[in-house]
Design a protein that fits this description.
binds zinc ion, 12 helices, binds (4S)-2,6-dioxohexahydropyrimidine-4-carboxylic acid, 5-stranded antiparallel β-sheet
Length: 355
Amino acid sequence: MLKLPGLIDPHVHLREPGATHKEDYDSGTSAALAGGFTIVLAMPNTKPPIFDSATLDLALNAAKQKARCDFGQYIGAGPYNADIAASLAGTAAGLKMYLDSTFGELRLDDMTLWMPHFQKYSKDYPLVAHSESRTMAAAILFAAIYDRPVHIAHISLKEEVLLIKAAKEKGIKVTCEVCPHHLFLSKDDIPSISHGHPGRGEVRPRLAMKEDVAALWENMDVIDCFATDHAPHTIEEKDSDNPPPGFPGLETALPLLLTAVGDGRLTIDDIMMKSYTNPQKIFNLPEQPETWVEVDENEAYEIKASEQFTRCGWTPFEGWKVKGRVRKVVLRGQTAFEDGKVLAKAGYGRNVRER
Ligand code: DOR
Ligand code: ZN
């Protein structure tokens, strides 16, 4: 039996408020525990988006009643909310800036709209950028100009990891995360994920070329964190004429990473650093006392959507053979998950920003 710290997923979409048929704080944090995560940080591209004190309260009140593991809730950067967002820095998980188009309404196309956010948001709390390719280069330039840390969400391309490497060598305060789906899947896998439904392969950033995937693995030392970007949409929505982008990931991340350890492509230390030590530091998160995860490293099984707690009802990794099963999660002294059952009550989860 392998014992790990409670893992941290700094990037999930729990769909609350507004789309609880896809997920909510209850089902999403149940999926988190089943996946070995004891802290999840939820993104603000909800309906309505989380962008001020009233909308932040909407999400936090739902979380307080329903969350089964600890949580934080991001606030989104909009065109006119830089002062308000900055005033909520100690309450929100961090500031999320959508600098490229994505799912939802939060978008900042013009760089003059980025400036007040970089100037005003507390340097003690994370500023996370959804920024791909050249937009990512611009976000790193902003970090240099405003001399503040920026965390780049879900990198997927060779050019991205190489530019982050170069920026780090220059002392620019940039960190980054990679998602399991960008490590284990490429464009070439879309047909086998799709089963004739092309919408199932849709995700932002898109699945990349094999060369990009290889570059992420080759530069694993540049990558600070693993993050799932758990983005549940129902199978009906994915198979519709207008499929929304996104993959669920909370329940498949650790088994996939442990399988890579078994294959000699990663070490347990990589998982500890990128899913615990680094995110705790980068996202300024509290220690969780008496918290750990027990994993049966040798249990081999097939990933099945039908066994998951997420409400979305599918996974791009259906049928994959993995090795490493979460047996038990202890959160702040209580058994929160054991042998396939979530034992933590709704409302047991705490806001990581509550003092
Ligand atoms: O694939 C994605 N889905 N990428 C995003 O940036 C948003 C996410 C979602 O909320 O569904
Ligand atoms: Zn996301």
